[in-house]
Amino acid sequence: MSEQALPQPVLQGTGRVAYFVVLGIAPGAAAEEGVRAFLGQAQALARSLNNRYGERRISLVVGIGSDAWQRLFPGAARPAQLHPFKALHGARHKAPSTPGDVLLHIRAEAQDVCHELLSHVMQALGDAVQPIDEVHGFRYFDARAALGFVDGTENPQGAEAEDAAFIGEEDATFAGGSYVIVQKYLHDMAAWNALSTEEQEKVIGRTKHDDIELPEGVQPTNSHVALNIIADEDGKELAIVRGNLPFARPSRGEYGTYFIAYARDPGITEQMMRNMFIGRPEGNYDRMLDYSRPVTGTLFFVPSAPMLEALAEGELPQGDSDDDGSLHIGSLKGQ
Questions:
Q1: Which residue in the list 101, 133, 151, 265 is annotated as catalytic?
Q2: How many domains does the chain have?
Q3: % of the chain exceeding 70 in pLDDT
Q4: Residues 43-65, buried b or exposed e (16+ Cβ, 10 A)?
Q5: For residues 114 and 173, what is the distance between their CA atoms, to the nearest angstrom?
Q6: Residue 330 reports pLDDT greater than 50
Q7: Residue-range definition of the domain harbouring residue 211
């Protein structure tokens, strides 16, 4: 990967702690200038903490929403697949589309440095932004979700993860960038815990204790795992890179999962979501949604690290792509 396409730390592990922060840009030109200036400082703020507390492996990824791109960089070329999150309306369940101009994804091995970095970031942004959502996630035992099952088992690794996450020659101006979709899910733990372990395993499609995928013929077609397996027209399975973590406020009975998925083409993640909410075939929706509902949904573009700094300096990407920058998954097998 060329120096100009060096990515932000998208592929860093989930961390023991993560802060997921969605912000809106305040009205006015001064706010827009404030956000642009922050883009040039973002990675330096994370590096400063890493220089002092490197063992805690702190990282920051910054994403920019569809409307924000137009506000911040009018006249610049646009990432080919950057668009507002597409709401989904199934027969029983819905995935809402909610506002968001800037995403901050902070990860570390300890909460104190997550807090410290976010404090510095918000000081740098000042009145340029307004809070929309903030969730503090945590690693739960051996990477389990609040529902008790291991999460992220099928995440690609190494070169496969890079291929899944980062834009390539299909949209060369934005190579090294990525797209990320976030959703905050709330769980009905009383209903979920009323199920037997065997029934829970059928809902998820994996065993609960040892995290083994249920065999064909046993795994229901409406299980979470089954509906998230998609392939291209040549039969190659398509992957995304998840960084999900659970969150909770037990005194309020709030338990959830923050879903965050990076991909070189957001259409892959969107197809998985259509399978979940609309069904494959239609009506055969993901049974996990009977116990878990999304309350947010936003899509962001994640520039490469050099582009993030260039945008702050007013060096805007130019040129129009003849292609739409997608991987052309409209003919995916198993839709």
A1: 151
A2: 1
A3: 94
A4: bebbeebbeebeebbbbbbbbbb
A5: 32
A6: no
A7: 3-317+325-331
